[in-house]
Design a protein that fits this description.
By secondary structure, the chain is an alpha/beta fold. The protein is built from 15 helices and 15 strands. It is 39% helix and 14% strand. Strand 5, helix 7 and strand 6 form a beta-alpha-beta unit. The longest helix is centred in the C-terminal third of the chain and has 21 residues. It is globular, with a radius of gyration of 24 Å.
């Protein structure tokens, strides 16, 4: 049943740790059947109730699952979760404002940056055994972080923000641990957390970010990690301001063992300043992506954090992909230092379109949220009906179900594909599809 792996232990905690260790090393594979409780108790010379308690602990941690008489088996983490399939395809003639992509017209040309990186590689080829972070990339990244008040820490490079978050979560947490997540929040993270065997704990979000009271309640109830978005929160556009940041830091200071992951994916497309929470707890990571400002296909994000977390992340990375292409890192350096890339103009462009849509909706009696970034969140009383009516009116929007756990229904509109002349027509369509939606009150 278990092959050559032997479960060990006399106490419930020891037995549970033994099983979890086997899962972690791969000696116990997903779907593998565990011995019946009485059989394992006899093998270990313990009371069956001890094994029952160990199995219960493993179920709570998400390590195993039990199907009645069919027994207990190692949990198989799903390759994907249903949120990815909650979408509306835009048929011909329908404008797609659901995808969350940046405006291609605002992305800088890449040929010069990639050509310069290729020339640099010819002069100094990237080879096995070299440092994973390009020297100039690391220097410029650290300087930018210092300027934004992000605490000192080693710099690592990952293949995008979600890759960074997955590596940090697996480096620091175990299956079954609870993670406080924004609600509504980024669908990619809401999919990732349960796929890792972790338990998402929703934390409400207003225009200033996560509510500090909700965060405190989640951490007091045992959540071991908190993931927050600094700016351009997806899908609401929330921004953590100075006052909310101070209150959140005060909460985190009371729970110093919390793993804090801060996502600044909106860097380069927002006008609002950063008020970072990084460094408030013992274990933390700050992630900044190049996707929105330069192009999603670069797949480059920088990460800093406490030395132990970064060391664990890079150590595990060495055993997989090894490193993120230094050619791509050098291309990003070229973009960072280019005099032709005007990120302030990019941020203004998104801000003008987003603010115009929020204002137009307010004039039509529709409450909407969107303080930063490229998305607008519209609460609606009937999500399915509103999304379908928008489709009939010629607009494909993103169903709110992709982004929410306990939050009431809504829909997300990405403004990056809109011209200013589109604002009135889409606002009319939203008003007709959704009807007036009262603003929520957060206490």
């Amino acid at each position: 049943m278990l092959g050559e792996y032997r479960i060990m232990g006399r106490r419930a905690s020891e037995i549970a740790d033994s099983v979890e260790r086997g899962v972690g090393t791969g000696e116990l594979e997903p779907g593998q059947l565990l011995p019946p409780m009485r059989e394992l108790a006899e093998l270990l010379g313990v009371n069956p109730n001890t094994v029952a308690a160990a199995y219960r602990t493993l179920r709570e941690r998400g390590v195993i699952e039990t199907a009645g008489r069919r027994g207990s088996r190692v949990r198989a983490a799903p390759a994907s979760t249903p949120r990815g399939s909650i979408r509306v395809e835009a048929p011909p003639g329908v404008r797609d404002v659901s995808a969350g992509n940046p405006d291609p017209a605002l992305l800088p040309p890449l040929h010069e940056a990639l050509a310069a990186a290729a020339v640099a590689n010819e002069l100094r080829p990237g080879l096995y055994g070299q440092e994973p972070v390009d020297e100039e990339f690391g220097r410029l990244a650290r300087a930018a972080l210092d300027a934004d008040g992000v605490p000192g820490g080693p710099v690592a490079v990952t293949s995008g923000s979600l890759d960074a978050m997955e590596r940090v979560l697996t480096a620091r947490l175990r299956p079954g641990d609870a993670v406080a997540v924004e609600d509504p929040g980024w669908s990619g993270l809401l999919d990732l957390v349960p796929a890792l065997g972790l338990k998402p704990v929703p934390v409400r979000v207003d225009d200033d970010g996560p509510l500090d009271g909700d965060v405190e309640e989640a951490l007091a109830a045992g959540a071991r990690a908190l993931v927050v978005t600094s700016r351009a929160q997806n899908p609401t556009g929330a921004v953590i301001g100075a006052e909310r940041a101070a209150r959140l830091r005060a909460v985190l200071a009371r729970f110093p063992q919390t793993l804090l992951i801060e996502d600044d994916h909106g860097h380069g497309i927002v006008e609002q300043p950063l008020h970072s929470l990084a460094g408030t707890t013992d274990s933390w990571a700050f992630v900044r992506s190049a996707a929105k400002a330069y192009t999603p296909d670069l797949r480059v994000a920088l990460l800093t954090g406490d030395p132990v977390t970064v060391d664990r992340l890079t150590g595990r990375q060495r055993l997989g992909p090894g490193w993120v292409s230094r050619i791509l890192q050098r291309a990003v350096v070229r973009l960072w230092t280019s005099e032709t890339v005007d990120l302030a103009a990019v941020a203004r462009s998104y801000g003008e379109r987003r603010d115009a849509l929020v204002l137009a909706l307010a004039e039509r009696g529709v409450a909407a949220r969107g303080r930063s970034g490229m998305n607008v969140w519209v609460p609606v009383p009937d999500e399915t009906g509103a999304v379908m009516r928008m489709l009939q009116a010629g607009w494909a929007v993103a169903p709110g179900a992709r982004y929410r756990v306990a939050t009431p229904p809504g829909m997300r509109i990405t403004v990056s594909g809109l011209a200013m002349g589109d604002v009135g027509p889409i606002a009319d369509a939203v008003a007709a599809a959704a009807g007036p939606a009262p603003a929520r009150s957060y206490g």
